[in-house]
Amino acid sequence: MGTGVYDTWLPDHLEFGKIRNFDLKRAMSMKQREASIYEGGRAWGAASRKACHATCSVRAGSGKIMVNHKDMTEYFKMPHQRSRITEPLAVSLYISLLDVEFIVYGGGLTGQLEACIPALARALSNYDVRMKPFLRKLKFTKLDLRRVEPKKAGLIKARKGQVYHRR
Questions:
Q1: Is the distance from CB of 151 to CB of 159 less than 8 angstroms?
Q2: pTM above the 0.70 mark?
């Protein structure tokens, strides 16, 4: 957690009348909020899509993007995948200023790619608080919560039934 003005005098879980410390932080303007940067100058973000989970760390550097300790071009081989994963960086104008590292597991490549985008956007909004409204407006931080519908008993698939034959 960041060390803000209100962190020193009231813990998060205590109530002060009807106003809690969390509400005071929410009422602060965006300029007063601080970036949540951890040891080594890293900001973190996490997201998921279908069965895929992605964790992203962002720090100042030369613009390298690593996915599971491999270069992005080795992991995501198609050009449209590489362009999609760099969209939040391009919008925030940090494309060659930050080193990005992803840890991704589960699912397939497309699901992993779609989990990396909101994870990167959340890490960027933790790194630079001023980017949060832009990334939210462009819907980079939004998660796609659709899942595969399970198969039902007595049906062929989740909703496909048997063909009715009269005779």
A1: no
A2: yes
